[in-house]
Amino acid sequence: MLYNTLELLEKERAMSEEEKPQEEEIEEQEIQEEEGEELSEVEILKKKLAACEDKYLREYAEFDNIKKRMEKEKIQAISYAHEQFARDLLSVIDALDNASASVAEASEPTPELFAQLKEGIELTISQFAKTFEKHGVELVTMENGFDPNFHEAVMQVESPEHKEGEIVQVLQKGYKIKDRLLRSAMVSIAK
After folding, report:
1. Which CATH number is 190's domain given?
2. Which CB contacts under 8 angstroms, 24+ apart, belong to 59-65?
């Protein structure tokens, strides 16, 4: 619709000055034929003005409707932007539910149950990692040492194996999505 309007505007601009007077004469003839009588120039101009105003109002209304529709689509796109991510996490939640149900059914804890539970937790963590990777969520790395942009030092500890300021232990993993930090990694550093 918008493209059609723009095309019409371009066509009108492209009309030469010679074509415009011919078009005006045709419009005058059409107006006089509709009325069935000779009209004065003022009356013809009033009719033309009314026709132009009507055309303008229709085009404006159409443009306003397009604008409202685009705004609605934008709001919906923002509202449902994380739909695929949430859908991908459903299998992870199902795995956790199954693990919880299997523990609830057991009459007493056994070494086999603990082994199965540990394996289930590891598989669930693996599913989380795959889903995160699919959506660009990565772990904050510790390879380059302490970086205050990505790490939060929550304590300092004595450590003869580490140099001062080096990361000794990761207390909570940090995550980022592409280049944006989601959560800083909480670490302890050497004194």
Report:
1. 2.30.22.10
2. 59/5, 62/1, 62/5, 63/2, 63/5
